[in-house]
Amino acid sequence: MIYVVFVEPESPGNIGFLARTMKNFGLTNLVLINPCELKNESYFQAMHARDVVSNSVTYDSLENFLIDAKIDSAVGTTGTAGGSYNVARIAVSPEQLADSINYQGNVALIFGREGNGLSNQEIKLCDVIVSIPTHDYYPILNITHAAAIIFYEMFKREKSYPVDGLEAATKAEKESLMIYMEDIIQKLGYPTHKSKNASLVFKRIIERAFISGREAHTLKGTLRRINARIKEKGNEGEK
């Protein structure tokens, strides 16, 4: 189970905004640590996530919540990641967090105060610290912006966007394209080193490309026709 924990929120509106962001990514367990008073603004800004606000639970301290909820992984967030001189603040990126976190246990994603973030003592309670790379000129993100980035990295591994009749090209289909292209390159009479470079470039393009099976089939047909036309021209030249 994933809990989203907001430590000492100062603005009722930000509670609503966070709830709304949570619901965008299927998260419903909001925990408020020593919060400001919930007002109409919280529910207004939450929009269709008012239930997340209504069902939120309140604790007087982060430590008490972590103990009471039997949290297996406490993930703190910070905008000022440390280095080797400050082991407690060595941070991972949201992507690294999403790749390594154990979703089977109880996970707490902990966001600090709007102004000061998490205290050093609160960070020491965390098992992992996550930080979002930002520009040095203005490194601190609004809590809901930071939350959206972290939620997205976690959620994108569960969500796919299937389109009827659209399937990604298989490895075999991409390799088939390479066979046709290499045959064409050989017929062009390039020097050996240029043939190798041309084949390598095409291979890299195809490997990076997010093409569908239908697109691969169409491209394969085009390469086949080009190959046949080159062969025809070659036969005409030999007569």
Distance linking N and C termini: 75 Å
What structural class do you assign from the helix and strand content? Answer: alpha/beta
Give helix and strand order, one letter per element, not per position.
EHEHHEHEHEHEHHHH
Rg over CA atoms: 27 Å
**CATH fold assignment of the largest domain:** Alpha/beta knot
Q: What portion of residues belong to β-strands?
A: 5-15%
CATH class descriptor of the largest domain:
Alpha Beta
Instruction: Give the overall silhouette.
Output: elongated
How is the largest sheet built, in terms of strand order? 3-2-1-5-4-6
Enzyme class: transferase
GO biological process, one term: tRNA nucleoside ribose methylation
GO molecular function, one term: RNA methyltransferase activity
Keywords: Methyltransferase, S-adenosyl-L-methionine, Transferase
